Amino acid sequence: MPNQIKNHTQKTYDAGDMLDLSDLAVNDVKWLNLAIKHLKAEFDDTKDFIQSNHKVHDSYFEQLDEFFGMYEHLANDRLKEKEHLATKYQNEWDNPKEGQA
User: Fold this and answer.
1) 57-73: b or e for each residue (b if 16 or more CB lie within 10 Å)?
2) Which one of 7, 17, 88, 91 counts the least CB within 10 Å of its CB?
3) Which pairs from 17-26 meet CB under 8 Å and 24+ separation?
4) Cβ-contact 91, 98 below 8 angstroms
């Protein structure tokens, strides 16, 4: 039985393809940040309403407040990472000779 060689088509991607993916990731994370900020603002309004009408202490809201802070931090960190990659690929796309020996 003869050996069969699998036909592998090598796929290549250029900086433009990677830039498209990076830009999409940046926009996705920006939307995530916007959603978190919106939810946090809604939470703050609800918390203020409850506290002013029912005299509930801040300690009842500390954990949710901390979670929003954590989510904001993580989303901002991811955004910076995605923006860094997008800038890298943009520079590579604009200057294709850079980094080549």
Assistant:
1) eeeebeeeeeebeebee
2) 7
3) 18/85, 18/89, 18/92, 19/86, 19/89, 19/90, 19/92, 19/93, 22/82, 22/85, 22/86, 22/88, 22/89, 23/86, 25/82, 25/85, 25/86, 26/79, 26/82, 26/83, 26/86
4) yes
User: Is 92 exposed, middle or buried (CB count within 10 Å of its CB: 0-12, 13-18, 19+)?
Assistant: middle
d(CA 69, CA 75): 10
The residue count of the chain comes to 101
Q: What is the pLDDT of residues 60-78, one digit of tens each?
A: 999 999 999 999 999 999 9
- pTM value? 0.77
